[in-house]
Amino acid sequence: MKSLKIKLLILLFTVAVISCKNNKDEKKSVDTEIRDVDNVKIDSDDDIFIEGKSITELLNDYSLKKTLEADNFTFNIAANNKDNNRILIYTKGLENEFRKVISFEGKVLETFTLDQNNDGYKEFYITTTPLKGRSYASVGDVEIIGFASHENKEIVEIAVEDIKSIKNERTDKVDVVDGKLQRSFIVNNDPQKYNYNLNIDGDDYELTYRKVK
Q1: How far apart are CA 177 and CA 157, in angstroms?
Q2: Cβ(117)–Cβ(182) under 8 Å?
Q3: Burial letters for 36-63: b for 16+ Cβ neighbours within 10 Å, e otherwise?
Q4: How far apart are CA 144 and CA 207, in angstroms?
């Protein structure tokens, strides 16, 4: 009889351990789904994870924080603006949320929200100044990073046509004129201006330039 009781106790203990383990695994599975699946709508920064850390944790180390508004979502940018810079980009409210980390040597200058081709969907532009540019880059040259809302469902990256001019140092500027990006700089003491246009071919978005005469 005593032997039977011992066997029953061992059986009950085993069942309890298995049950606890299953509950723990089930909770872990739920947490993983919330944190790691990209295509879910986001309500809180605590639910956005990049490189294993939540945005709430990461933002403590970033001095520049921008929230750009669109029709049904926000496009969020954070940068630490140190020599080895990192830009965090993430959306909240899209059907397919977007997250990206950009590492480069330089700093973020400005951010713009535009609709250059007047299709009703926003584009988001970030201007940066690299510390180490291409072989033809001058000190103070500006680079443009672009993203576009594809029918307010997802974010696509915009390819930006590069102007390969050797500019006078610290003369390169990007502004918004009549709802479009305009770039101005000086080459050999000759002031130059370029207007940018957004071209879309299917899923391909490209920002091209045209010299202003």
Answers
A1: 22
A2: no
A3: eeeeeebeeeebbbeeeeebeebeeebe
A4: 10
Instruction: Give Cα separations from 118 to 179, 191, 204 (angstroms).
Output: 9, 29, 17
Cβ proximity of 78 and 129 under 8 Å: no
Q: Which pLDDT band, with edges at 50, 70 and 90, does 138 fall under?
A: low
How many other C-beta atoms can be found within 10 angstroms of the C-beta atom of residue 64?
A: 15
Round to whole Å and give the CA distance between 144 and 157. 12
Q: Give the C-alpha separation, 195 to 140, whole Å.
A: 20
| Rounded CA separation 103/139 (Å) | 19
Q: Can you give the length of the chain in residues? A: 213
Mean predicted confidence (pLDDT) in 108-112: 93
Q: Tokens for 166? A: 């050797």
pTM, 2 dp = 0.74
Residue 99's DSSP bridge partners are: 90
95: nearest Cα among 149, 162, 21: 149
